[in-house]
Amino acid sequence: MNETLQERLFDxxxxxxxxxxxPSGIPCDDGWYDLIDNMCYHIKRRISNxxxxxxxxxxxxxxxxxxxxxxxxxxxxxxxxxxFVDYPVTPTDLQxxxxxxxxxxxxxxxxxxxxxxxxxxxxxxxxxxKRTDKLVSKILCKRLAKExxxxxxxxxxxxxxxx
Length: 163
Description:
elongated, alpha+beta, 3-stranded antiparallel beta sheet, 24% strand, 163 residues
């Protein structure tokens, strides 16, 4: 990801995305910027504030959730994300279940959408393989796949490298 975009993410979400966890930068291309931005936004809004206690003792505490690892899956078909939840107090089973459910839903959604989003442009995309090397794959929009000499991944592999 280009430096300007990743600095924007680091600045907007310092508690979620730490430069310490990504010393070489965010290992994604620019097309996934909006996915990562939306994921961080929803972590901040849907997870970070959880009610602890009930009735007059109810308090609102922040539950820090950090992204500790993020990269393309080895298979190349989507983004892979790992989170760490730092509970400020010991949660009840119900609270822990709720937080884990929220983290899981954001993770699953982001990973799923990344598999349909061009890594370079952010437009709708599909998995393509490099015509000259089937081990090189990317999620690309049709225009870029053609320009960069990529072919449909599934046809390429199912037909033994023939288009």
